[in-house]
Specification:
CATH topology of the largest domain: Oxidized Rhodanese, domain 1
CATH superfamily of the largest domain: Rhodanese-like domain
Number of domains: 3
Helix content: 25-40%
CATH architecture of the largest domain: 3-Layer(aba) Sandwich
Strand content: 15-25%
Shape: globular
Radius of gyration: 28 Å
Distance between the termini: 93 Å
Strand order of the largest sheet: 1-5-4-2-3
């Protein structure tokens, strides 16, 4: 009996030992399979620029990517060919399947070698660890600081990156800190929405005054008001050609509508708060509930006297005759910023008129899913879509910086946003066809119209 017990104990000991060995081997295999994040170098960066199997990812915000300095020690801009995926998006897209879909949309796919960078490498490391948890394998970390320490390197900046400003830029301006690209001594902040005074009174950016878009346009055609009315408006807000004006709104295209109006009149320095009030709140800044914000002039030298009474940039806004000139110009591009269903004539896109079709000879620029949104031109956080993607898209639909371009939509809002993007990218001969589809379609006998699918 004792002998049997002893034999059983010995057998149990052998089995336990075998299980232990197997567990040890399993752990060793797991460690061997563990994905390690490597450190990239300049050679890898340079080769990645011409390698379709490698993608460089900038995980910083729009401001740094577009051209603003992230801090006093680092230059602004991005590494050539880098796509943008701000790490803040990881807090917006919490579901991994949706996150993967967004990564795939940005071409950050599992079959590619991924090089991510930020200013010093920390946030990009966090981003890569998230990719690692999703099953990505070829991961490399890098930083702008290391890149700029190399000889002969240069970051890509958009020609007019300063037109889109961040919440921190606006906040620094408000509190009196020195801000990049601002050389004036007077500024105005405007919240620009349609019939949005109640929303404004619930909370707005500090020092922001309210502008209803009805102040700059009127029905039934919803074109810009007369030059006299527009000058009366900026006089009311004590804005002159040297005033820096920051506009924002929800939707953003309302602010861009006012942006174009101010540039048309001759205000030299107009900016868009990228992402608007939502971006302001997401950046941690509080909303002000003061109902009637007064014009701030204390300590500023600008006397706010307007020294002109005619639009300084008359060619920035054109009518039907101007649109026809562009259509007849072999170098011209009249760009229809509308949905597919609007462009092919399935719907007018609006409740207050039903005229369907498109301007014959126009170029289609896919705005989004409805006439009330700009889904294809905004990222998930409400900011302007990454300008590298916009630049590629403009080229895809046949736009060149050598073209004479006018953007139009139904009445001007959507086209204004695409026009601002073009200006940031450095397109020079650009304008807003303010009459748009609404006015053009009123006279089909004299204004050629098309229907049907895109050829």
């Amino acid at each position: 009996m004792k002998k049997k017990v002893l034999l059983c104990l010995m057998a149990l000991l052998v089995i336990t030992s075998m299980i232990g060995c197997n567990n040890s081997t399993s752990k060793e295999n797991e460690e061997a399979k563990e994905i390690k994040i490597k450190n990239a170098d300049l050679n890898l960066i340079n080769s990645a620029m011409n390698d379709e199997n490698t993608i460089i990812v900038d995980v910083r915000d729009d401001s740094s990517y577009n051209g603003f300095k992230p801090n006093k020690d680092l230059d602004g801009g991005h590494i050539d060919t880098a796509v943008q995926f701000p790490i803040s998006w990881l807090n917006i897209v919490e579901d991994d399947s949706k996150l993967q879909a967004l990564l795939d949309e940005k071409n950050i796919t599992k079959d590619k070698n991924i090089i991510a960078y930020c200013n010093v490498g920390k946030k990009s490391g966090d981003f890569l660890n998230k990719l690692k948890s999703l099953g990505y394998e070829n991961l490399n970390n890098y930083s702008i600081k290391e890149y700029l320490s190399e000889d002969g390197v240069k970051l890509v900046k958009y020609p007019n990156y300063e037109l889109l400003v961040s919440p921190s830029w606006v906040n620094n301006l408000i509190v009196g800190k020195e801000v990049e690209t601002y050389n004036g001594d007077d500024y105005v902040i405007l919240e620009c929405t349609y019939d949005g005074i109640k929303d404004y009174e619930k909370g707005h950016v500090k020092n922001a005054m309210f502008v209803d878009t009805n102040y700059v346009e009127e029905g039934p055609n919803w074109n810009l008001k007369s030059d006299k009315d527009l000058f009366d408006l900026i006089n009311k807000y004590e804005i002159n050609e040297d005033t820096t004006v920051i506009v924002y709104g929800k939707p953003s295209m309302g602010a861009e509508r006012v942006f174009v109006t101010l540039k048309y009149l001759g205000v030299k320095d107009v900016r868009v708060l990228n992402g608007g009030k939502e971006a302001w709140v997401n950046a941690g800044y509080k909303l002000d509930t003061t109902k009637e914000v007064k014009r701030i002039t204390e300590g500023r030298k600008n006397n706010n006297n307007i020294t002109f009474d005619k639009p300084a940039n008359k060619n920035l806004v054109i009518n039907v005759d101007g649109a026809k000139e562009i259509l007849n110009d072999e170098n011209g591009k009249l760009v229809s910023v509308r949905t597919y269903d609007e462009y092919v004539g399935k719907t007018s896109g609006y409740s207050y008129f039903d005229r369907k079709g498109r301007i014959k000879g126009s170029v289609w620029c896919n705005s989004g899913s409805t006439s009330q949104d700009m889904d294809n031109f905004e990222d998930i956080d409400g900011t302007h879509r990454s300008l590298s993607e916009i630049s590629d898209y403009y080229k895809e639909i046949g736009l060149s910086k050598n073209n004479k371009i006018a953007f139009y939509c139904g009445t001007g809002w959507r086209a204004s946003l695409t026009l601002v993007n073009a200006m940031v990218l450095g397109y020079e001969d650009v304008s807003l066809f303010d009459d748009g589809w609404f006015v053009w379609s009123l006279d089909p006998d004299n204004n050629p119209i098309e229907f049907g699918d895109i050829k």
